[in-house]
Amino acid sequence: MRSISNEKNLRDKKILLRLDLNVPLNKRNITDTTRIDKILPTLKFLNKQKAKVIILSHVGRPKGKILKELSLSPICENLKDQLGLNVKLITQNINEIKNKNFFNNFDEEILMLENIRFYLEEEKNDSKFAKHLANLGDLYVNDAFSCSHRSHASIVEISKFLPSFSGLQLDAEINALTKITSEITKPISCIIGGSKISTKINIIKNLIPKFDNIIIVGGMANNFIKYYGHNIGLSIKEKNCDLIVEEIISLSKKQKCKIIYPEDVLVSKNLNGSGKIKELNEILSDEMILDIGPKTIVKIINIINKSKTLLWNGPAGYFENPNFANGSIQIAKTIIKNNKSDKIFSVVGGGDTVSLLNSIKAVDSFNFVSTAGGAFLEYLEGKKLPGITALS
After folding, report:
1. What is the DSSP letter of 282?
2. Given 91, 279, 323, 361, which is the most exposed site by the fewest CB atoms within 10 A?
3. CB within 8 A of 46, min separation 6: which ones?
């Protein structure tokens, strides 16, 4: 992959920059700017190089229809404010823009084409559409790692028609993931959660041969607790998962990777409750597990303190209720403490985990926080991402 950060002669070049600006909107108000914040360094770099930036991005899933509520207009305004630059949204139909000279009509340093998913050809990875997009610029830059598991026209096919580069954020994402999958400093541990173990089985199987510890938390852990003969009451669980749990346990023994699941938990009879600490053999049929207990927290803290590298994907409990956020917060605080003293390299990913860190204003306290969802998980599974392959 060629990185745009190594290119020196970008003055007056028209750069087609693919970003993922798919931020949550509530009545056209942005409720979380993390994805925008992450790509600011790339925009500042290109602006400093006196390049003309033409942003390609999307919001939501309009499925080829023009939907006013999914316009990039609010994001355009946010970029103006954050960069202190004039950013213009081009609402003209892309297919009516005939060549890159069209952009000479504007004085703004940064231009943004309207939601690329307003065009059906985008998600079809249509070659003709991709070639038309390519005719609008001199160079192509992919800085949308979180979309790079999609074979879309502005991610994959466009790279066939222009000199193509990775952006600064994509470089950072790949470097961070390489450090926890290939260039590992041991001991290395993974804290992994989520509601469905079946969606994470391939990640766990891919990581077991490389990792020393895999700590199962969240809804997934309930399947392990149940497998070992404990009542989990009304707790969230996935059906017919005993064979998956057996497979994980068997592989971990062969590869000498420790699988850790909760020793004690916090339970409640409803999601709005206050929580009660219980041993695994004390859970009643009308209770649900909503967080890890104090003994489990201590065990996880000890593992983090002994680790040199750590991957975290998935909160430890139902953090939306502060009464069940303690496990996740203690994990975060321990990683942050080790980060500050350079004792650990930490990578965090997953929407819920990032939301948790945002809620305690701790996103900047980790070595790397990934805003990618599916792409992050597929990379951890060992899959080749089409958008990355296209740049290579």
Report:
1. G
2. 361
3. 4, 10, 15, 17, 53, 141
Q: Give the C-alpha separation, 144 to 155, whole Å.
A: 8
The tokens for 4 are 């745009």
CA separation for the pair 187, 256 (Å, rounded): 12
What tokens were used for 369?
């926080």
Which phi and psi angles does 361 have, rounded to 5°? 50, 50
Whether the Cβ atoms of residue 139 and residue 13 lie closer than 8 Å to each other? yes
Radius of gyration for the chain, computed over Cα atoms and rounded to the nearest angstrom: 23
* Of the options 3.40.50.1260, 1.10.3720.10, 3.50.50.60, 3.20.20.70, the CATH number for the domain spanning 176-380: 3.40.50.1260
Q: What DSSP designation does 3 have? A: B
336 touches 7 (CB < 8 A): no
- Please report how the helices 168-181 and 34-48 are oriented relative to each other, as an axis angle in degrees rounded to 10: 120
- On the question of a common fold for 4-169 and 176-380, the answer reads yes
Q: Are 189 and 212 in contact (CB under 8 A)?
A: yes
CA angle 354, 355, 360 (to 5 degrees): 95
Q: Tell which CATH architecture fits domain 4-169.
A: 3-Layer(aba) Sandwich (3.40)
C-alpha to C-alpha distance for 208 and 66, rounded to whole angstroms? 45
Whether 137 contacts 16, CB under 8 Å: yes
Q: Could you tell me the two tokens for 244?
A: 């998956």
Q: Give me the residue spans of the domains in the chain.
A: 4-169, 176-380
Q: What is the pLDDT of residues 204-257, one digit of tens each?
A: 999 999 999 999 999 999 999 999 999 999 999 999 999 999 999 999 999 999
Cα distance between the two ends of the chain: 4
Q: Look up residue 263 and give its DSSP letter.
A: S
pLDDT of residue 8: 86
Tally Cβ neighbours within 10 Å of residue 264: 18
- pLDDT category at 380 given cuts 50, 70, 90 is very high
Give SS3 for 235.
coil
